[in-house]
Specification:
- 72% of the residues lie in helices and 1% in strands.
- It has 296 residues and is mainly alpha-helical.
- The protein has a single domain (3-290), classed as Orthogonal Bundle (Farnesyl Diphosphate Synthase).
- It is globular and about 50 Å long.
- It starts with a helix and ends with a helix.
- Its cofactor is Mg(2+).
- This is Polyprenyl synthetase family protein.
- One of its GO terms (molecular function) is metal ion binding.
Length: 296
């Protein structure tokens, strides 16, 4: 696949995801709730998680309707987590995706409810009429998403992050935090796409390893960008982790070693794909490049 073909696929996939999000996130939820939900999830973000779902589905020649629903669901979970993380009781941030955060725009109570509603909507999207997606696949997708978002995944990682503020973490503890907080949902995105298709034990393990590596690489690069890019480029407040005295890969390893760590994780992800036995995994390989080479 050429760079131009990959870029064209990304544009088409992103258009489909945006259209599905716009269709499924209700504008008419009561008392302005729909407006806050749509503000929090539409028209912004890299949509990496949906792209990973769809690329893994294509690699395993999977069920496209199920994969699109999984792509939307995982983005809803990601968006809800950002809405809650930005609130004053968590990271207290005022800028996200180049615009005021949801609680700044709509108030704290409405932001909390918008996040809650997006989380519930994710599982509603995953569980349509069984004529659209087989019940067994619905259950498998819901389980993968729930485990990655809950106490053993994203929410648990955020709890560790909050507790670690002002503390000195070694690399092992930092890695455990980020494998949960960021990596689990990215890994689940890959596996949800694979669950929509045909993946034998070898391919499943390889895709799991790929997802784990790329999930951690994403966070390492995020930490690097936080100290090397301006807020205008990032679309969020630059340097906020340093200002909040939070441990990051840059604060623990230094900038040069953090970059080496990102490169090593990228190599691990590519090696996992090579070991998968899948002949149509080129989109996943190029997404790994995109994660490491990004500037925002």
């Amino acid at each position: 696949m050429t760079d131009a073909e990959f870029d064209a696929w990304c544009r088409q996939a992103l258009d489909e995801v945006e259209g599905a999000l716009s269709a499924w996130v209700p504008a008419d939820a009561p008392a302005g709730l729909g407006e806050a939900m749509r503000y929090g999830v539409l028209d912004g973000g890299k949509r990496l998680r949906p792209l990973l779902v769809l690329a893994a589905c294509d690699a395993t020649r999977g069920h496209r309707e199920a994969a699109m629903r999984a792509a939307v669901a995982v983005e809803l979970i990601h968006a809800y987590s950002l809405v809650h993380d930005d609130m004053p009781c968590m990271d207290n941030d005022v800028l996200r995706r180049g615009k005021p955060t949801v609680h700044v725009q709509f108030g704290e109570a409405q932001a909390m409810l918008a996040g809650d509603a997006m989380q519930a909507l994710a599982f509603e999207v995953l569980t349509p009429d069984e004529s659209l997606v087989p019940l067994a696949l619905q259950a498998r997708l819901a389980g993968l998403l729930a485990r990655s978002a809950g106490h053993s995944g994203m929410a648990g990682g955020q709890a560790i992050d909050l507790a670690a503020t002002g503390q000195a973490l070694d690399e092992q503890r930092l890695q455990d935090m980020h494998r949960r907080k960021t990596g689990a949902l990215l890994q689940a995105s890959v596996l949800m796409g694979a669950a929509c298709g045909q993946a034998d034990a070898r391919a499943w393990q390889a895709l799991s390893d790929y997802g784990a590596a790329i999930g951690l690489a994403f966070q390492v690069v995020d930490d690097i960008l936080d100290v090397t890019q301006a807020s205008e480029t990032l679309g969020k407040t630059a340097g906020k982790d340093l200002d909040a005295n939070k441990p990051t890969y840059v604060s623990v390893l230094g900038l040069a070693r953090a970059r080496e760590r990102a490169a090593a994780l990228h190599a691990q992800a590519q090696a996992a794909l090579s070991a998968s036995g899948l002949t149509a995994a080129h989109k996943l390989a190029m997404l790994a490049d995109k994660v490491v080479d990004r500037e925002s």
